[in-house]
Every structure is written in C-alpha cells, then in structure tokens.
Fold:
Amino acid sequence: MALINRDACKQRVGDYYTGKADALSDNTILQRVRMRRRQLGQMTMALDRDLAKRRIPSGDYHISRKIDGEFTCLVYSEGEVFTINPGGTIRMGASFHEEAKEALDKTGVRFAIFGGELYVRRPDGNRPRVHDVVRVARAPKSEEDVASLCFGIFNIYEWNDEQRGGSYAERFDRITEIFGEGDRIHPVETIIGDGSKAVLKQFKKWVDGESAEGVVARSDTAGVFKVKPRHTIDLVAIGFTEGLDDRSGMLHDVMLASIRQDDTFHVIGRVGGGFSDDDRTQMLKMLEEHVVESEYAEVNSDRVAYRMIEPGIVFEISCLDIIARTSRGNTIDKMVLEWNDEQRLWEGIRRLPLCSIISPQFIRIRDDKKAVKEDISFKQLTDIVEIPSANVVSEELKLPASELIKRSVATKELRGATMVRKLMLWKTNKEEKSKDYPAFVLHLTDFSPNRKDPLKHDVRVSSSVDQMEQYWKEWEKKYFVSGWSTL
Structure:
C-alpha cells in the first residue's frame, strides 16, 4: 500500500508534487520525524569558536560542513520515495528523489528513514541559503528550479522498520556506501578528526575560507557539537527589569525589538548577558529615566513585569544562532507593538512570525544609531532566516473589530450599597486572523462593594455560538436570581 495519496498533493512542475501530512496513510511518520528533530536539538550543543576551544573534548569526530538548508527526512518504502519536514510538508518527484530511489532499490531495503538537509544548489556557486529552499521547494517556476533541489544526508534513523543502531561511524559508512556517488543526493561533506583542534581547523577552512554556515562534529561518546560564527545585530531597547534580592538596584535584562518596514516594533527577545555589575547599576538608572506607559505587558523568567521605555536606545548584541521555526516546524510568533508618540504609550497590535535569538550577549549601546527602520533594519534578520509575513504592513496587521451579540445588566441593593452583575457575549471576528483569539467570548462582571474582593470576573470562550448560548442560559439562571433587577 502506498504511503502517499498523490491525489491529495499538488502538482507544481512536471513530476514534482508537494502536499501536507494528511496525504500520508501512516500518520506516525510525521510523529517520528518530529521526534528525530527534537532529539537532534536536545543532543546538539551550539558553540561559537571560542567556546568550542574549551568545550569540545578530545576524541574521534565526524566533522561535517553545515548546510544552510531545511532539516528534512527522506522516506523510502517499497520503492516509494518522498521527503517530509517537521512542519508536515511532503515533497516528491524531484531529481534527487529519483536518485534516492535508484540507489535504495539496489540495496534490497524495504523501508528506511534518513535525516538530512534539503538545500538549493545555486548556479552562481555561492553557498546555499535556507531562503532559497523556501522559495524554490514551495513554488518552483521551472524544471531548472526543481533540478536545483539537493539533499545532504547525515544520518540513518530507521532501516527495515527498526531503529538504526550501531555507531555513528557505521551508519555514516552505510550512507557513503549507498549515496557516495550521488549528485543531487549525497552524504554531507565530512572528514574524521580528533578533538577541538581538528574541528576548528575545518571551521577555519569552511567558514572563514569558504563562507560556510558552520561545522557539525559528531561523536558517539562526546555528543554532537554545532560550531557557528556569532551574528551581530542592532536592536531597539523597549523595556527592562530589575534584579531581585541581592541584585536589587541592578539591571536584570532588557527587552529588545526590531523595526518592521511600516515602523512598527516587533519584540524579538531579551538580553541579560554581557553586562558587568557596574554596567547593570548605571544602565538601570539610565533606563529608568525613559519609562513610559504601555497597554502591553510581559514578564521575565522570574515573573517580574517589564517596565517599558520610549524607543530611542539602540543595543548592539551578538547571538550564536537565529531560529525561525520550532522543532515541530511551527512559526515562532512574537508581539508587534506600535509606539503612540502623542500619548507616549505602547499599543499592542498582534502576534506575527519572527524568530528566536540564541545566547544573546550585550556588546554596546550604539550612540551613532537611532530607533528608526533605516538603522534597525528588519533585513538584518531576513538575511539570515526566512520569516513569514515579513513584508506585512500595519494596516494588514490590525485585526477586525469585535461584534457584540448581547448584553445584560442586573442590580441589587444590599445594606445601602448597589451590587452589579453584567453579562456580555461577543464575536471576536479575529479567529481566522490570529490564533491568539477564540471565535466567541462570554464575560461576567460581578461587583459587590461589601465584599472583601469587590470586583470579580469569569470568562468562557468557544468556537461554537450554540455552546456560548448554553453558557449564557446557565449563567443567567445562576447569577440573575430573585432580588436582582434587570436593567
């Protein structure tokens, strides 16, 4: 039985098709791919050059050139070949798929899953970029586009329905035996070396000399190490928190944002490393002078709320990596804010895909730069990772207005005080635009001035108006009882 229902996929160019995981007859395939992606992330230690010198122990390593592509698994089943990524995107029918089928047919294997990087072989000879994969693999414009898709294999995950055991050296030897003569599908470029010295030698050759993205060193005893150059980016400081207990009076961390093309501010993350204690004391005093009001609130890892500041201070930071998707292939959505200069107020707009910065470190304040898109270019990020909706403007960001379905208010006099209960049911009209909003909301306000906690709230949300109507009837019966007068 075929694993892929081709009728559920879309023909792109020639024999090249793409589809979603619902085209699979075995829905565990996607789960297994996601598990492998999580395992890879958990076992891989990301390092820069300096950390690699100190952290990578001696021992034999398979040292590979890191490909700037998309983590993907290649699946072979009884002559059927396709690739699937953790987001559930299926691809089949490209030249490298046909090469894989031809090579694997010769082995006699019934079923296998391989881990690798899907990338684009660029005609200009420059190193592949993940942006190219997204563009070409999603919607190729020609047979030449499809033919440029390539696959670098770095591991065997399953072989004949069993987890592939043995040492990594044995698995890589098997990969080389099967795909070593391949063109568009091949083992990742790899050498064997001892310890950090060998790893950094290849880093100098591939990264410094040939602009590769990085190197990956694998050892059965020491683990997996990813060594990459640090990225340096400029971001706007928009909030801060103070340290607790013995760190009181010192800066804890700073909330940072990038500036989109429409002058909105996209929250990217926080930086708390790279400051001396003297920096923390002086910087806290400086930031406190710029505190403003905000409709948007967020807390740090210690559950301390950020105090928002007016946009103006530019931080230069370094980070080890910038990641635009989770291990399951989902986007990393962050809040977009708008600065209301007239009211001196931050206003929340909505969440949109952005990225996470890994191991950020403060370098300096850029007094020579301003908090404007020309200096804090969003392109700093999109040059490194592919960010969906990167060109969306603020008018498109604003969500539809909510629609009140019904409202009911009742009062009651008790010991000279007026108690108030209010029910409101509304349709958000936002559920299709943002996953942060339900379709319907029912809200109860219960005010009693004689109570220890005078104001109480309760809320119900649902995608079904019928369910909300049922909640309404139950609450009306419960709260609008005898003695309460409806207005």
